[in-house]
Specification:
alpha+beta; Ribosomal Protein S5, domain 2; Alpha-Beta Plaits; 2 domains; four-stranded antiparallel β-sheet; 13 helices; 13 strands; 41% helix
């Protein structure tokens, strides 16, 4: 019988109990959230059959960061604390991954880390469609990567953080997931991501649409509102995937690909009027496919944006969460008090104070 060749993974015991190391070296890592255009196309169910159209997704990283801090805890147990959730404590490899913090436990189990108290602080509202869980996963992987460095091992490059966070989340979710949230968290900035749909290549390729001072300048052209209602992206995404697989509305997705290219080109040329027009056309298509992407509040905010010659789009898969607007600076300035007054009618809603984040995971 031929001798079995062991891979490095099979020989790797993982981090083990890192409590003693964290006693002297508590570790922090953070990553930005995002707003987006052309989402869903980052799911392989779409971009493989649409490969001839060169599907793309644009995202803009925001400085509402999620911060993960690793500190020691007693024994081998894993404790996770996150605002809005009761502390969760489990022995290694025993946490249910369908728990609200299950993704974080799955990432911890991947590294076979124990003896750790993981604190998660997010500057974004919970379940707001800004990519929160994926952002937290990237930040946690970055923190464990730093532990590897403290142990004299090779740290994980950003490219692999993206792939690892996506693979673990998709496995835990049990449904097809996209890559854009992890990419914005890892790299920051304003980027157009394309999906090569070639198993011999990385599953993504990116190009920055804006750089340097233009990133700061974009702040005056954006506003982001939290609608005060949480969302569950899987519900809408499942509807879109089901429609696409059964052949319903395929022409809509062809148009969404074209509009995403239009939007990316308009941003790169600094034509905010054209970008706003692409936003409104894409939002209308998605709302026709799935009316629940915008509630009554979202509908009224979007109509106000159009009236002020701005574009409006829900974040992620909609159905609650956030809505963002883009336009010429004077148009956005005129829209802001209108949105603020409308949002005041819902106590949990409001404008988010945020800016473009150039840095990605740190």
């Amino acid at each position: 019988m031929a001798e079995k060749t062991m891979t490095p993974h099979e020989n790797d015991p993982g981090l083990g109990n890192i409590g003693p190391l964290l006693d002297n070296h508590p570790i922090d890592a953070s990553a930005p959230c995002r707003i987006d255009f052309g989402g869903t196309l980052d799911i392989s169910s779409f971009h493989y059959p649409l490969r001839h159209l060169v599907p793309s997704t644009v995202n803009i990283a925001l400085d509402r960061r999620t911060t993960v801090t690793l500190r020691p805890t007693t024994g081998d147990r894993i404790r996770i604390s996150s605002e809005g959730f009761a502390d969760a404590v489990f022995n290694p490899s025993t946490a249910p991954y369908d728990h609200p913090l299950g993704l974080m436990f799955a990432v911890t189990d991947y590294f076979n880390a124990r003896g750790v108290h993981i604190h998660i602080h997010s500057a974004s509202p919970p379940r707001s469609g800004l990519g929160g869980s994926s952002v937290a996963a990237v930040a946690l992987i970055a923190a464990f990567s730093k532990v590897l460095g403290c142990m004299g091992k090779k740290e994980i490059p950003r490219e692999r953080m993206v792939l690892l966070a996506h693979a673990i989340e998709q496995g835990v979710a049990g449904v097809a997931c996209g890559l854009q949230d992890q990419l914005a968290a890892a790299f920051g900035g304003v980027n157009a991501w394309t999906w090569p749909a070639n198993p011999d290549l990385l599953p993504y390729a990116g190009r920055p649409l804006l750089k340097g001072r233009a990133l700061r300048r974009l702040d005056r052209h954006l506003i982001v509102a939290y609608l005060g209602v949480t969302h569950v992206s899987k519900d809408v995404n499942r509807s879109w995937v089901r429609q696409f697989i059964t052949g319903k509305g395929r022409e809509n997705w062809h148009e969404i690909v074209r509009l995403t290219h239009d939007f990316a080109g308009a941003i790169a040329r600094w034509n905010m009027t054209a970008a706003a027009d692409a936003m409104n056309r894409e939002t209308a298509i998605r709302k026709a496919m799935t009316p629940q992407v915008l509630d009554d509040m979202g509908d009224r905010l979007a109509a106000a944006a159009i009236e002020k010659e701005c574009g409006a789009r829900f974040t992620g898969a909609g159905g609650g969460g956030c809505l963002w607007a883009l336009g010429e600076a004077d148009a956005v300035a005129a829209l802001k008090p209108v949105w603020k007054k409308m949002l005041a009618g819902r106590p949990t809603a409001g404008l988010l104070d945020c800016r473009v984040d150039a840095n990605g995971v740190m």
